[in-house]
Design a protein that fits this description.
EC 6.3.4.3 (chains A, B), twelve-stranded mixed beta sheet, globular, one-carbon metabolism (chains A, B), alpha/beta, ATP-binding (chains A, B), homodimer, 555 residues, Formate--tetrahydrofolate ligase (chains A, B), ligase (chains A, B), three-stranded antiparallel beta sheet
Chain lengths: 555, 555
């Protein structure tokens, strides 16, 4: 059986001009990056196009068994194209850190992939590198301000702006910098986040244009003065330089799927400490250029899904026409208590016990008033009985479920799903959309809506620190910002080990992080790692390239 | 008067296809990056082309008055093109750190520039970002090996591989990493270099192909075991992954000058701790595609010039046909003791006193048996008398000098220089080339040749540490490696404050740094900063971009 990269490498990739023509871009609306990638910037007239339909792909809580959300997203789009519907995919860009670590790439799998796979998984068009560069330039400017007489009276113990690298490097989580004597800066504690966790990543993916991005950048709170007053990038006066460094990164990237469906891949913010979906510009561009845009949100429906509907949707100005919840028999068995080792064996008992996880996500997604369907992403060992059990369960929520074999068959394996999704979009009515909370609600009210209606729990419990923070934030109006929940992706609760669909739980808010540039308030539950580490056998050990540039071992 | 960026922005830039056609590349020999940049990889048949002539531009010791070496390089190439000679420029890529700091960009100036100026000065085609990424991936893999049981028995106090960022950030010179407890690595001292100081930068610019690059990468010494035995990248087993990350960065980048002369801009190693010139591949590619290649070497003839002739020339397999030594009246006056504030006033006394600096460089360059000419880069306030004095002085060495006004007039201001250079190349005879030392010479013998014949000093004096290192290096054969002198660029001596042409001095070698991947031994004199800092008023404060993407303040 071929590996993902072998399938990708043997693909008949089209020159990007052919994809550009298919999409209908004029010469001034795109720039090539190599022979099979482009950056896109629509003209004002194309931006007036009527928006197509938006299909949001989300999932049950991820497990080590794998759900294949990106694979379903790509396969569904290819299926729609096979049905002669003008379709585009909108996805996040992969982070290089995990590619060299454990996770591998993030370009789908099997016969449902976006290509050129190796390029997309490594440097692509340089967006993440531009972000890393902009992030660390800002950090250097902050420490230089401290060093050059500290005119902003920054408290060196209260700098919020860390440094960033797109590498899995646990040794950089906690560092001390500025050592080496008077010519090498002011010693202080610091740390590195992975680039996708940078507030600049959230900003890039939330901005409609350069001006909007500059305004957001100028609002970033970089730290506090000795009087505990917030200091922003505007106070430092470098929003122009930082925006300049992101002038190309703001443009969505155009590539193709194995079946030549046009795909916009742009930005990759975390789905816990940020909104977890590709850029607003990419989604908007796809909507302006196609009749059907298939996009995904990170992690499960409780994280990426909720954030898409409560935070991204108002900014995008477009409600999804259908939500696809991806589930697998394997993952549901794990939610029912089965071990990873035994997933290839039929086990209806475990499956039944795990179905509740799917159920909670169906309930929570249905509450928004958007049509919902289930995609059962089929794996080799799934039995007909198991698949039927999941389908019947979905139907008990009034939701149609479709078995899709996108890994093995690409778009051909998702024909029924595609037809079901198109039918579902016909039922969509924007007036039915029911937001979870109102912008003017207090932070705690917003969080309790999420805990109760999305997670199925009791209530939010704030730590003493979080309570105190909220009181302080009132002074600046930060308590009214949209809420971004930073919670484990593995459970509906804040305990990564509680699978299935627990009901008897509270959510514990340890701390808030104000992200004024991105324009949200992060509520941290437990400890969220913003710099991953490498495993004992990093993927890097298996990656190689020969004299002709042929790459092996990239997955 | 227009600023450099205003001139660059108002230029009539040609689509890169037009430059590609002019150069004669076939479709499979190049890839576009945007509309005005390309990456080039010659076919095997084009690589059989007869090599054109090579013109090396170097200079007197740089002063704060400015020499304009890149500007002369570009202006001279444009002048040759005006004379209907098929010409290409080969230059280094600018580093982003100084662009945001004090120095500004490195794309020439006035009417002798390479464009697109802002792109080249910022992310360009991502080469430096790929290097940063590869460098830090290797660093993370090293710390991960320490963390995961340390199978290579690395001594955490003797890790040589630091981390790297393309930012001027003095606070990162000396850091401690791995803090935060058992889950966040092994605490140890570390530091960051600017990306251009990475050994990977030297390797990228010395490699002829992917295989050669992988071999060099595998030889990098990353640190020592507790038994003080060297540990290499090959021991870690990740040369394949690191090479894969550099698969596109190894290809030279094609752009154009304001006058549409094709320019290959590729790599940018330091001229003190590395060889200080653009990649071998870019120089070779230019030689294969043109009749005249104009290239430059970093800093003065004592650093970049010497390294080009003693280190790069044998690897390139091509001796320069002419060496152009750039001098300015202003800089020579500073070498004669004049203050920077008074340079616009005529001062023949100071000029006479400073001429010795030019003289030493003419002597040292002439000794290689390559024709030498002087380019006097004219500034507004230079008087005819001053210019004549410099010309006459050069003639006393049997060297012709030509006044060039490339900043104000582009190629038209360098017609006489171009004609003189072409005539000089007719005199070149490879059999005249006299290397400074033999590969089998001992390190100290090599260094003494450099000190005496290039710097005009007495001898090299080794510190106790350096002596001890040489004794140790004998064990591994490292003492026979080519020597790369890391010395201040401002003086022929190792004291940055000694201008002119001192004769009564020794050179003090503090320490050696073995760079087995790059394949040279760095001899450190004094302390060489490998991570610059930002000034009180960083250039970033003045850089801005408007809603149309128009950039201001970049210089």
């Amino acid at each position: 059986m071929k590996t993902d990269i072998e399938i990708a490498q043997s693909a008949d990739i089209w020159p990007i001009e052919k994809i550009v023509d298919q999409v209908g871009l004029s010469a001034d609306e795109w720039e090539p990056y190599g022979r099979d990638k482009a950056k896109v910037q629509l003209s004002e007239s194309t931006q007036q196009n009527k928006l197509g339909k938006l299909i949001l792909v989300t999932s049950i809580n991820p497990t080590p068994a794998g759900e294949g959300k990106s694979t379903v997203t790509v396969g569904l789009a290819d299926a729609l194209m096979q049905q002669k519907r003008k379709t585009m995919v909108a996805l996040r860009e992969p982070s290089l850190g995990p590619v060299m670590g454990l996770k591998g790439g993030a370009t789908g799998g099997g016969y449902s992939q976006v290509i050129p796979m190796a390029d997309i998984n490594m440097h692509f068009t340089g967006d993440f590198h531009a972000l890393t560069s902009a992030h660390n330039t800002l950090a250097a400017l902050i420490d230089n301000s401290l060093y050059q007489g500290n005119p902003l009276h920054l408290d060196s113990r209260r700098i919020l702006w860390k440094r960033a690298l797109d590498v899995n490097d646990r040794a950089l989580r906690h560092v001390t910098i500025g050592l080496g004597g008077p010519t090498s800066g002011i010693p202080r504690e610091d740390g590195f986040d992975i680039t996708v966790a940078s507030e600049l990543m959230a900003i890039l993916t939330l901005s409609h244009d350069l001006d909007g991005m500059k305004q957001r950048i100028s609002r970033i709170v970089i730290g506090y003065t000795y009087d505990k007053e917030p200091v922003t990038v505007a106070d430092l006066g470098v929003e122009g330089a930082i925006t300049t460094l992101l002038k190309d990164a703001i443009k969505p990237n155009l590539v193709q799927t194995l079946a030549h469906t046009p795909a916009l891949i742009h930005g990759g913010p975390f789905a816990n400490i940020a909104q977890g979906t590709n850029s607003i510009l990419a989604t908007k561009t796809a909507l302006q250029l196609s009749d059907y845009t298939v996009t995904e949100a990170g992690f499960g429906a409780d994280l990426g899904g909720e954030k898409f509907l409560d935070f991204k949707t108002p900014l995008l100005g477009k409600v999804p026409d259908t939500i696809v919840v991806v589930a697998t028999v394997r993952a549901l068995k794990m939610h029912g208590g089965e071990n990873k080792q035994h997933l290839t064996k039929p086990n209806l008992t475990a499956l039944k016990q795990g179905l509740g996880n799917l159920g909670q996500h169906l309930k929570s997604m249905k509450r928004y008033g958007v049509p919902v369907v289930v995609a059962i992403n089929k794996f080799t060992h799934d039995t007909a009985e198991e698949l039927a059990l999941v389908s019947d369960y979905a139907k008990s929520f009034g939701v149609d479920a479709y078995v899709a074999n996108v890994w093995g068959q690409g778009g051909s394996g998702a024909q029924e799903l595609a037809t079901g999704v198109v039918q579902a979009t016909e039922r969509a009515n924007y007036q039915d959309f029911k937001p979870l909370y109102q912008p003017e609600d207090d932070a705690l009210v917003k969080i309790n809506h999420i805990v109760q209606e999305i997670y199925g729990g009791h209530k939010a419990v704030l730590s003493a620190k979080a309570e105190k923070q909220l009181a302080t934030f009132k002074k600046y109006g930060w308590d009214k910002l949209p809420i971004i929940m930073a919670k484990t992706q593995n459970s509906l609760t804040d305990d990564a080990k509680r699978f299935g669909a627990p009901t008897d739980f509270d959510i514990h808010i340890r701390e808030f992080m104000p992200k004024l540039g991105a324009g949200f308030l992060v509520a941290l539950t437990g400890s969220i790692l913003t710099m991953p580490g490498l495993p004992k056998h990093p993927a890097a050990l298996d990656i190689d390239i020969d004299s002709d540039g042929h790459i092996t071992g990239l997955n």
